[in-house]
Design brief:
single chain; 6-stranded mixed beta sheet; Immunoglobulin-like; 3 domains; 7-stranded mixed beta sheet; 497 residues; mainly beta
């Protein structure tokens, strides 16, 4: 059995059996201590660094409740230098917006050595998750699955599959470096920036590593990987959640198809695909049937990296993290020898959640858009007279911004009565850019239609958008003109229009 020496301490968050959550500040101090079995060790990708743990687990423990249950989680912050907060991603928080966990907006952050009790009704049912909403604590490990069952425990076995990009420094240091240095160890030169094949810039941050359920391998190390067990003939439900910060990943399982049955906690009519593109904050439930010969198969998550430069010069570089799908009688100590599925003209691969119109010609790969997914719940469009429309452009006029406005936190949470203590937005913000507290006040009882645009500056980039406390229905998607042979966007025509 492999062992790792460690009697040092790591950052910790503990959910106790009585419903309390204790946040503890502990640091790695020594690697030459008692031998600890590898299954009891937080190995991440094999590189030593501090990690925030929940109940000594990374990711944190999965919390499972029934829909409609009254949930109480008391957070005790024992971090010595950092405040914290906890957001239950996907929960409506109807009637209790101050339980949403957004510091400076819906609550004051929980100071060191202080506590706060979150009390809310568990709704809606589905795959959700909890995470810190302060600074970069989520990126350092403060998250876990929060599963709400509709009316009974499911008969199909399921397990969370957390995905995240990973750096070898506390993410606060990455954040600070990004604000103080034009270039640094985390940020490449402009000519080294990564692009996806459609000509879109990837994040400005260098890819370092990634994890699946808290495990990965950096630089071809022999660190242990996450293993998901399946029985032959069994259907296994994966609850895929992207808890990362920057990179989009394409998730697939060698030799197996994936039947998507839910998106962001809501059931959809089943769609069979070979891979899923998942952005930070998104979740997809998919089922896999154990219909292959017994053995070990790679679960893969690859970034959209295609090459460097605006012309996307192809490079032999792979940014990937793996886990293992293992049949019960397969050797537990052997890596899979499997390869990715081959997409052919007669049997093209289906990819869900494309942020672009199509893959390059000849790739034998077809897109299934989020707008193609059909909810299992009946829905009828509201009368136009009862609908109000709002336009939001998510661009980079003044750093990351909405309609030219970079967000300035309120001086106190907005749950307090007006007048709010905020930085007002001026009319010139729309064209010149500014930093202010941008607030859109919507009428009660109306159906709200958002038109979300990513016009950006320059070549822009793929952008995920999330609204707390509400369900969204995607009505339509649009793309700029693109080259059908290469799949690249025609940015000039986009800008001219």
């Amino acid at each position: 059995m492999s062992h790792i020496r460690s009697d040092g301490e790591v950052n910790g968050v503990e959910i106790l059996t009585n419903g309390s959550l204790q946040v503890k500040n502990r640091y790695v101090s020594d690697i030459d201590g008692t031998i600890v079995p590898v299954e009891e060790t937080i190995t991440a990708d094999g590189v030593l660094r501090n990690v925030i743990l929940v109940n000594d687990q990374f990711p944190g423990p999965t919390l499972e409740v029934m829909e409609g249950a009254q949930v109480i989680v008391t957070v005790v912050n024992n971090l010595m230098r950092e405040a914290t907060s906890l957001h239950f991603h996907g929960m409506y928080m109807r009637g209790v917006p101050y339980m949403d966990g957004v510091p400076y907006v819906t609550q004051c952050p929980i100071l060191p050595m202080h506590s706060f009790a979150y009390r809310f009704k568990a709704e809606p049912a589905g795959t959700h998750w909890y995470h810190s909403h302060l600074g970069s604590q989520k990126e350092d490990g403060l998250y876990g699955a929060f599963i709400v069952h509709k009316n009974s425990m499911p008969t199909t076995p399921s397990l969370p599959l957390f995905l995240q990009d990973w750096w070898h420094d506390n993410f606060n240091e990455v954040d600070v470096d990004g604000k103080t240095e034009a270039l640094g160890q985390f940020f490449p030169l402009s000519q080294d920036r990564g692009y996806s094949f459609d000509g879109n810039l990837l994040t400005i941050m260098n890819f370092k590593s990634a994890l699946i359920n808290g495990r990965g391998r950096y630089n071809n190390s022999s660190a242990p990987l996450t293993t998901c067990e399946i029985s032959r003939g069994e259907a296994l439900r994966f609850r895929l959640i992207h808890a990362g910060a920057e990179y989009t990943f394409r998730v697939s399982i060698d030799a197996h198809s994936m039947t998507v049955v839910a998106n962001d906690g809501h059931d959809v009519e089943p769609v069979q695909v070979q891979s899923i593109l998942v952005f930070p904050g998104e979740s997809y439930d998919f089922e896999v049937v154990g219909d292959q010969p017994s053995g070990n198969y790679w679960i893969r998550a690859q970034t959209l990296w295609a090459g460097k430069g605006p012309d996307v010069e192809p490079e032999d570089r792979l940014q990937e993290v793996k886990a293992i799908l293992a049949y019960g009688n397969a050797p537990a100590d052997k890596d899979p020898m499997t390869t990715m599925q081959t997409c052919t003209e007669n049997s093209p691969c289906q990819v869900l959640n494309c942020p672009f119109p199509a893959f390059p010609q000849g790739s034998n790969t077809e897109c299934v858009y989020v707008s193609d997914l059909n909810s299992t719940e009946e829905y009828s469009m509201s009368d136009e007279s009862e609908t109000e429309e709002y336009f939001f452009n998510f661009g980079f006029l003044l750093d990351s911004s909405v309609n030219g406005r970079k967000f300035a936190s309120p001086k106190k949470p907005l749950i307090f009565k007006a007048p709010y203590d905020v930085t007002p937005c001026e009319a010139a913000c729309e064209t010149d850019g500014c930093k202010c507290t941008y607030m859109a006040e919507i009428p009660h009882g109306k159906t709200i239609r958002f038109v979300l645009m990513n016009l950006g500056v320059g070549n822009g980039g793929h952008h995920a958008i999330h609204l707390h406390g509400y369900d969204l229905r995607v009505l339509a998607m649009g793309f700029p003109d693109y080259n059908e042979t290469t799949g690249e966007f025609s940015f000039q025509s986009h800008q001219d229009s």
